[in-house]
What does this fold into?
Amino acid sequence: MTILEVKAVNKVYEGKVATQALTDIHFTIQKGEFVGIMGPSGSGKTTLLNMVSTIDRPTSGEVKIGGADPFRMKKNELALFRRRQLGFVFQDFNLLDTLTVAENIVLPLTLDRRPIKEMESLLRQTAARLGITEILNKRVYEISGGQRQRTAIARAIITLPVLLLADEPTGSLDSNASRVVMESLAAINEKEGTTLMLVTHDPLAASYCNRIVFIKDGRLAAEIHRGDNRQTFFQKIIDMLSFWGGNTNELSSIRV
Ligand SMILES: Nc1ncnc2c1ncn2[C@@H]1O[C@H](COP(=O)(O)OP(=O)(O)OP(=O)(O)O)[C@@H](O)[C@H]1O
It folds into this structure.
């Protein structure tokens, strides 16, 4: 079943000098896939993510999520669609610091006025999945970066979104916390069958994906599949990045 369909998408940023950020992008994500998007700085990854997350619209072409075209929706309908069908995880967590972990996680359900009993049950299940049950009553400023990102992931999946979008989720974390966060995302993908799209510069984070799509100068450049061995896949990603361009500095010391 196709969850995301991107068809002939072009994006031009108008301005004194117009920038063609995406050119004729076609790709699909099937249910249960974990897809990474990689490419050099300025290649169009964020632009593509903004089209899929419905934050910005393509200049031409079509984006369909779960068969629906978000760009044909009215403003209120689109806000609901985003809240119920999409989950977002950002580099800087986007949590509310003065609320507790539990309050942050149930926020999308609170906005939807879901019954308290239902919220409590979903909260318990989701926190257990991410191993953060012990910290539910702590405030965000009292927890670590890795715990913050797992809280943000819990908030993103508590609505059971059809598509979970992650933008550099390990960008603010050290290597141990990155590993825990990527293992959490991979477990959600494998055990719950949640469909994921991840934009990252980090080859280690990308090695948890099943498939990686490389973008270069706004065009799809290549695609690789993981197979059984994450270590081999990690090496393949490094080779692709050095071929297509990307951040391969300081990689020699990374252990997979
Ligand atoms: N709001 C904007 N207005 C004008 N040009 C933009 C805008 N956003 C991005 N661009 C341009 O579009 C191109 C693609 O940018 P984009 O941010 O999508 O790349 P990226 O691959 O996400 O880069 P990075 O890895 O550095 O985040 C770049 O040439 C960029 O300068």
The radius of gyration is 18 Å.
